[in-house]
Design a protein that fits this description.
The structure holds two protein chains of two kinds. By secondary structure, chain A is mainly alpha-helical. Chain A has one domain: Orthogonal Bundle (MetI-like fold). In chain A, 68% of the residues lie in helices and 1% in strands. Chain A has a two-stranded antiparallel sheet with strand order 1-2. In chain A, β1 and β2 form a beta hairpin. In chain A, 30% of the residues are buried. Chain B is built from nine helices and 20 strands. In chain B, α2 packs parallel to α4. The radius of gyration of chain B is 25 Å and the shape is elongated. The chains are: A mainly alpha, B alpha+beta. The interface between A and B is medium-sized, with 30 and 39 residues.
Chain lengths: 305, 398
């Protein structure tokens, strides 16, 4: 066999490393760097400093001085442990729920509607349409719909699906429902971009190689849509973990469903306990960064978006 | 059948297959039997229905009517993953999210076959790519990807291997190489190969049997030499190599030969090489069977002589030279002359005569009335005519 004759000829092309430190490039980056320094690094630094502050002795409520009071962290961690756990639990559940809802939707729009570009554009517009109405208004609307006087709850009571005296608003269910609902477009759009480019010939090849439709779906379609699934999951999970609207008492939650966002809000605006709020914010940030960076590294950043 | 390796190739039977797509019919009443262990080529121009036939056999399309049998088992209603068939796709369709090895082992794993990895390595060794097993497909060259696609299909030892123009994307040299390798692998593993191609040379080099397809039907089927030496229709005569065709009435007919009068010239062909023996008949001869003479040759039995004519074009192509010879009443004839040490060398404008042995002529089955549509398809007028006829046919259907 003469296959060997061609074997060595095609090593992957290595791009020549262009490492010229151009002054023009630096100059062009300047606005971006300044922006980041001013609006990201400075507030972050201020937040870190605040998180270590101690109350001024004999001072008023809300008066703090610079210190290195690391106990702030242990205090909030012990006080608000249930909220932290709840935040991540709710966000994770909402992410999974949004994925289960969005994948079939994105598949339908990206694959089944391919032959009808007009319908595809219309369906995509419908996915984005909720953004035309304020997020707060939509969540309030759901509060009305799911309230005890609303027709949904009365119908559920009538059908005996909900025990007497039970509510929907103010429960973990309604908060997760609200999170899922609000983040579905963020999940659907990246998955759609992946599936829209999905080459159906791979799916045919899967069938040709003895993979049942289910097996082809999990071994070919899902891995090929993975970049979209990963970005969708990140775009849903990160804001959902810090969300304080859905879980707030004024919207779909109650005191029993408070998430870190609500606690931070209360500490900053009501209790005026700035160090605790800052410490919680940083804990939330790190707690999100760790699993997310593991997730991104394991799934390969180059495939994202 | 899934779960086991095919001991040998299975035969494929297509019975009365029809496939209609919205707006057109791709395949009309196709009946075909491919014997086990053979290398079968479906040859035809694009749009003739050959790829649709292959997809029907693979289970990627559903037939509108008819039955498909593989090794005697009716598979018409089964899905692609249930058929003992593997395909080497034109685009290769190698899974980009898997390594070369995982790609090759994919089919084995789905069928839960023991030591999938070892078998995949073995298949990669067969195509001499085992050293690249851990690479991603997109890191390989086109030729290497093609071999991985082949290994991925062959490793499953399917009863029937389908090849959908798998060599189309390769350059000429690599394509010739792969043709020989593919043939060797087929003989090694003894599987039935169904190869779809529009490259007549490829079909003739590789296949035991070639079926020439046109407009959803098989025009002619047989061994490559048989198809080439004795084409039965003008389509085959022109698609498989080139032909010089003449049409005229039969003026005498004996048990051994018939004579056709073409513009006053008598052209004799053997009776058993003619499909029609009376009325207007189209006869032909291959360009390489023609001999050039610079002076009028003597009349001899069993030799057809035409001429004089004028050389209107000479193009040199290495081993042979192609001449265009215009003969009044016959039109333009193509002649291939080997560039040997002897024989006449004629130049543009020379007066020449052409002779050929009567045994090399063939008579076509086509109704000569239909002949113009096959006449030199490089001619602008013919192309325009074909296009108009096609459009008219489409309009009628709609």
């Amino acid at each position: 066999m003469a296959f060997g004759a061609f074997a060595g000829t095609a090593t992957a092309p290595v791009e020549p490393a262009v490492r010229r430190r151009s002054k023009v490039a630096l100059f062009l980056l300047l606005p971006g760097i300044l922006y980041l320094a001013l609006f990201f690094l400075a507030p972050l630094l201020s937040l870190v400093i605040t998180s270590f502050q101690a109350p001024v002795e004999f001072g008023d409520i809300g008066q703090y001085q610079t210190a290195f009071k690391w106990e702030n962290y242990t205090t909030v961690l012990t006080t608000y442990a249930p909220h932290i756990v709840r935040s991540f639990g709710f966000a994770a559940t909402a992410t999974v729920a949004a994925l289960l809802f969005s994948f079939p939707l994105a598949y339908f729009i990206g694959v089944k509607l391919r032959r009808f570009p007009l319908l595809q554009a219309l369906a995509l517009t419908l996915v984005i349409a909720p953004f035309f109405i304020s997020f707060l208004l939509r969540t309030l609307a759901w509060k009305q719909l799911l309230s005890d006087e609303g027709w949904i709850v009365s119908a559920l009571h009538g059908l005996q699906l909900l025990p007497p005296g039970a509510h929907v608003t103010g429960t973990a269910f309604s908060v997760i429902f609200g999170l899922t609902y609000n983040f579905i477009p963020f999940m659907t759009l990246p998955i759609y971009t992946s599936l829209e480019r999905l080459d159906l010939r791979y799916v045919e090849a899967g069938g040709d190689l003895y993979a049942s439709p289910a097996s082809t779906f999990f071994r070919v379609t899902v891995p090929l849509a993975a970049p979209g699934i990963i970005s969708g999951a990140l775009l849903t999970f990160i804001p959902a973990a810090g969300d304080y609207i859905n879980a707030s008492r004024d919207f779909l939650g109650s005191t029993d469903t408070a998430m870190i966002g609500n606690v931070i809000e209360a500490n900053f605006l009501v209790l005026q306990n700035y160090p605790a709020a800052a410490a919680l914010s940083l804990i939330l940030m790190v707690a999100i960064l760790i699993p997310v960076s593991v997730y991104v590294v394991r799934s390969g950043t180059d495939d994202l978006l | 059948m899934a779960g086991t390796f095919a001991e040998s190739g299975a035969d494929l039977e297509l019975v009365g297959i029809t496939k209609r797509f919205p707006g057109f019919t791709a395949i009309e009443e196709l009946t075909l039997t491919i014997p086990a262990g053979s290398f079968f080529a479906l040859l035809g121009p694009s749009g003739c229905g050959k790829t649709t036939t292959l997809r029907l056999v693979a289970g990627l399309e559903e037939a509108t009517a008819g039955r498909i049998l593989i090794g005697g088992t009716d598979v018409t209603t089964t899905k692609s993953f249930q058929r003992p068939v593997n395909t080497v796709f034109q685009s290769y369709a190698l899974f980009p999210h898997m390594s070369v090895l995982e790609n090759v082992a994919f089919g084995l794993r789905r069928r839960k076959i023991a030591d999938a990895t070892a078998r995949a390595h073995e298949a990669l060794r067969l195509v001499e790519l085992d050293h690249l097993a851990q690479r991603r497909p997109q890191q390989l060259s086109g030729g290497q990807q093609q071999r991985v696609a082949l290994a991925r299909a062959v490793v499953n030892r399917p009863a029937l291997l389908l090849l959908d123009e798998p060599l189309g994307a390769l350059d000429l040299k690599l394509r010739r190489q792969m043709q020989i390798e593919l043939k060797a692998i087929q003989q090694d593993v003894g599987l039935t190969f169904l190869h779809v191609t529009h490259d007549q040379e490829e079909a003739m080099t590789m296949a035991d049997t070639v079926a020439v397809m046109n407009k959803g039907q098989i025009e002619q089927m047989g061994a490559p030499e048989e198809l080439y030496e004795l084409p039965k229709t003008a389509f085959v005569a022109n698609f498989l190599g080139q032909s010089n065709l003449f049409t005229g009435p039969v003026v005498s007919s004996t048990a051994t030969s018939i004579v056709v009068d073409v513009a006053g010239r008598k052209i004799e062909i053997p009776t058993d090489r003619a499909q029609r023996h009376a009325g207007d008949v189209t006869v032909g001869v291959r360009p390489e069977k023609l001999m050039l003479h610079t002076s009028a040759p003597e009349k001899q039995p069993d030799i057809n002589v035409v001429g004089p004519g004028r050389v209107t074009d000479v193009s040199f192509s290495g081993v042979s030279t192609q001449y265009q010879v215009a003969i009044p009443g016959l039109g333009s004839l193509v002649v291939f002359a080997q560039n040997m040490v002897f024989g006449p060398v004629v130049s543009l404008g020379a007066e020449v005569w052409l002779t050929w042995n009567t045994d090399h002529g063939f008579g076509l089955a086509d109704d000569p009335a239909d002949a113009p549509r096959f006449a030199a398809d490089t001619d602008t007028h013919a192309l325009a005519l074909q296009k108009r006829e096609k459009l008219e046919a489409e309009l009628e259907e709609a």
